[in-house]
Amino acid sequence: MQSIIQKYNIPGPRYTSYPTVPYWSEEGITKDQWKASVKRAFDESNDSEGISLYIPLPFCESLCTFCGCHKRITKRHSVESPYIEAVLKEWDLYLKLLGGVPRVKEIHLGGGTPTFFSPENLDRLISGIMEKAERTENYEFSFEAHPNNTTVEHLRKLYELGFRRNSFGVQDYDPKVQKTINRIQSFEQVKEVTNKSREVGYTSISHDLVFGLPHQTIDSIADSIEKTAALMPERIAFYSYAHVPWIKGLGQRGYSEADLPVDEVKRELYEFGKRRFLELGYEEIGMDHFALKSDGLYKAVEEKTLHRNFMGYTSGKTQLMIGLGMSSISDSWYGFAQNAKTVEGYEQIVNGGEIPIFRGHKLSAEDLIIRKHILNIMCHFRTDFSDPSMQFPELGDTLSRLREMEDDGLIEIGADYLKVHEVGRPFIRNVCMAFDLHLIRKAPQTRVFSMTI
Q1: Which helix (H) or strand (E) holds 104?
Q2: Residue 51: what are its φ and ψ, rounded to 5°?
C-alpha cells in the first residue's frame, strides 16, 4: 500500500512567490510597467511602513555542491569594488524613479557569500545606500555569513552599520556529508563566530541546517542538532535539500541520487529534528523554521505579521522590496522582476544607465487573490474566503482538488475557510499547489521543481 508520504511526494514549488518563477518571462512585465508598479508601491507604502532592500553578494571562494543560489566562484577579491559601484549606481536609478526619500525598514545581504567582501567594502556599500535614505523606527538589518571567513572585523563593522541579526550556513557537521557537499567547517569555527557575534551585540543569530543531504543518517542529524543545541541560536532554519541537478548542473551531479535519503527516510530526518527542537524550547515557524519565544520571528507568529518571500520567512513585510545586484528579485506586490543573472551582464546594463531587469511578471487581479491565499497557508496554515474579495471563479474547483487531502486527515475544509492540521504541515506545498492556477493550467513539460517532501 502506498504511504501518505509516497502519495504526496511529488515535484512542486516552494512558494517564495506567486506566481512562481517558472511562470515569469521576458515578456511578463515591461520595464515601463515595472517602473510604474514600483512607483505606485512606493507612493502607497513608504510613509506608513517603509521599503525593504535585498542585496545578493554573489561571490564565493569555493563551490558548495548542494547550493541552489546564483553565484560566481572566484578567489579574486578585485571583483568587489566594481560590483559595489554597480549596486550603488542601480540604487541611484531607483532613487530617481522613486522621487522621494526612501524609509528603509529592512536590508538583507544574501549569497553567494556576503562576508567574501572586506569590512571596508561592506561599509562602502551600506553607507552609500543609507546616505540617501532614512531608517524606519523598527528597522532590521541582517546578513548571511560563512563561518569560515567571517571575522570579528566583519561583525563589528556590520554592527556599527546597524545590523543586529546574522545567519550562519552550517548545513551539517558530519565529516562525510561535509566532504560530499564541499562545505567543510568545524564545530569550533561555528562556535567561535557565534560567540563573537553575541559579544559584539547581535541579538538574533540563526543557524541553517539542511536535511536530505547525501549520506545523512539519523545519527548524523542527531549529532548536528546536539552541537547546535550547545550554542542555542535564536533561530534555526531546517531546510529540505532541493535536488535539482537538471537546473544547477555539475555541482549537484557530484554524487549519486542513491546517496540521498528519500521519501520516509528523508521525512524521518525532519521529524526527528523537529521533535528535538521542540524539546529544546524552539517553536515551529511555517514549514522550515524554528525560533525561541524571545525572537522576533516567534513574535511575528503571535501577532500574525509573519511573511514569506525570497528571503524565506520574515517577521514582517513591506509592500515594496527592491532587489539590488546580480540575479536579485524585486517585489512591488503588483509585480515581480529579476535582474540579469551574470555579473558581467548586470554590470554592463547598470553602467549603461538602465534598471537591469530581464524577466518578471505583472500580477493580474486573480493572481493577487491567489497570492494572498498562498501566503496565508504558508505563514498561518489557514486561509479564509468568506470575504468576497478573497473569492475567485475557480475556488470550487480548487477545494475539490483538496478533498482527497481532507479525506486523508491532513486538512479541514469549512464553509468559508481552509485549515491545515498539524499532521498536514509536511504537505503544505501540496495544499498550495491546489490553489496554483498557473500550475493547474500549464504544468511544466520538463523537470523544474524539487520534491515536496
Answers
A1: strand 103-110
A2: -125, 165
Determine the structural domain holding residue 250 and report its residue range. 20-362
Torsion, Cα 251 168 240 298, to 10 degrees, reads -160
> In this structure, what C-alpha cell is assigned to residue 201?
551585540
Q: Is position 11 within any domain?
A: no
Which portions of the chain are predicted below pLDDT 50? 1, 246, 249-250, 252-253
What is the residue type of 236?
A: I
Q: For the chain, what is the domain count? A: 2
Q: Where are the beta strands (DSSP E) in 232-348?
A: 235-240, 283-285, 289-291, 307-309, 312-314, 321-323, 329-331, 335-339
Contacts of 163 (CB under 8 A, 6+ apart): 107, 141, 142, 143, 202
Q: State which amino acid sits at residue 61.
A: E
| DSSP tag of 306 | -
CATH number of the domain residue 404 falls in = 1.10.10.920
Question: How confident is the model at residue 1, as a pLDDT?
Answer: 39
C-alpha cell at 361: 511578471
pLDDT digits (tens, 9 = 90+) for 10-54: 878 889 999 999 999 999 999 999 999 999 999 999 999 999 999
Q: Which residues does 168 contact at the CB level (< 8 Å), separation at least 6?
A: 144, 145, 146, 147, 150, 190, 193, 194, 205, 206, 207, 208, 233
pLDDT tens, residue by residue, 133-153 = 999 999 999 999 999 999 999
